[in-house]
Amino acid sequence: MSERYISHQKITPELSNWILEQTRAGFKPQDVLQSMLTAGWERPVAVAALERTLKIRIDPQPAAVTTATASPALVSAIAMPEPDLTNSPLYLDGGDRQVAVLTVLANPRVVVLGNLLSDEECDGLIAFAKPRMARSLTVDNKTGGEEMNAARTSNGMFFQRGENELVARIEKRIARLVNWAEDRGEGIQVLQYGPGAEYKPHFDYFDPAEPGTPSILKRGGQRLGTVIMYLSEPEQGGGTVFPDLHLEVGPKRGNGVFFSYDRPHASTKTLHGGAPVVTGEKWIATKWLREGVFV
Ligand code: PD2
Ligand code: ZN
């Protein structure tokens, strides 16, 4: 017979604040958990405090650690899409294409990728998308449906996953680059911005506090990562900005930027936006990576 675990340790607002502070300082959930265990917190309480504060799920501790070298008693934090940057490679193998690693930030994980798409692939995506462009809608957190959004003055469309050979090829390349199965991604979205158009700073995860979020999450769980691909270059403006990082990625055709967020929380510092286009026209394609299989 199983017994319910009862502890005298309590999850106080002070404890939650401390967890948030640690997270903002750049410690990952498993680091914070280790500190709590070292400080004498009982594992079930520590895990519950982290899960509640950061709105994440922590996988149960592996049942058996079989080798002497295996990492002791660390939670396996949620799996994340992530390029393999071991030994600081200048290029990543995209399968059919060598993709350059131009800039890397560790926390949050931001990787600027060069040569992600060829000019022909950029033109091909635009050509397929053009006849289907409409004023951009965003997912409405209140209802789980879609809504017109004043913060996003671009036009857009979604491809189905694997809709045509070009889309399938790019999806396969991204899956390989970020080590994330193709079916754990949404269909690619294409956006077009003319002069003055912008996408105001936002987070790409779905806000757990919004009433529509549970229904959105049924289709593959949270978003964990984003790949923005630049398809055409405006002459001025149109960078992707990360206000908390004081970082701006230039919209260079064929390049891309990958970033990830392991919890749906502002402490990930992944607030980002599309700066207004000043002159010219900006086209991008975005791939969002989900926790589970997106159906
Ligand atoms: O166009 C961009 O740079 C941009 C900025 C922020 C795109 C997105 N977010 C997005 O597609 O989520
Ligand atoms: Zn975004």
Structural features, described:
The protein has 295 residues and is an alpha+beta fold. It folds into 2 domains: 13-74; 91-290, Jelly Rolls (Sandwich). The protein has 6 helices and 17 strands. Strands 1-2-3-14-10-17-8-7-4 form a 9-stranded antiparallel beta sheet. The chain is globular and about 65 Å long. Residues 60-76 have low confidence and may be disordered. The chain binds pyridine-2,4-dicarboxylic acid and zinc ion. Residues 202, 204, 226, 272 line the site of zinc ion.
What descriptive keywords fit this protein?
Jelly Rolls; 6 helices; 2 domains; four-stranded antiparallel sheet; nine-stranded antiparallel sheet; binds pyridine-2,4-dicarboxylic acid; alpha+beta
Topology at a glance:
Elements: H1 13-24, H2 29-38, H3 43-54, E1 91-93, E2 98-105, E3 110-114, H4 119-129, E4 134-135, E5 137-139, E6 146-148, E7 155-158, H5 165-178, E8 189-193, E9 199-202, H6 213-217, E10 223-232, E11 236-237, E12 240-242, E13 247-249, E14 256-260, E15 272-274, E16 277-279, E17 282-290
Antiparallel strand pairs: 1-2, 2-3, 3-14, 4-7, 5-6, 7-8, 8-17, 9-15, 10-14, 10-17, 11-16, 12-13, 12-15
Helix pairs in contact: 1-3, 2-3
The structure holds pyridine-2,4-dicarboxylic acid (PD2) and zinc ion.
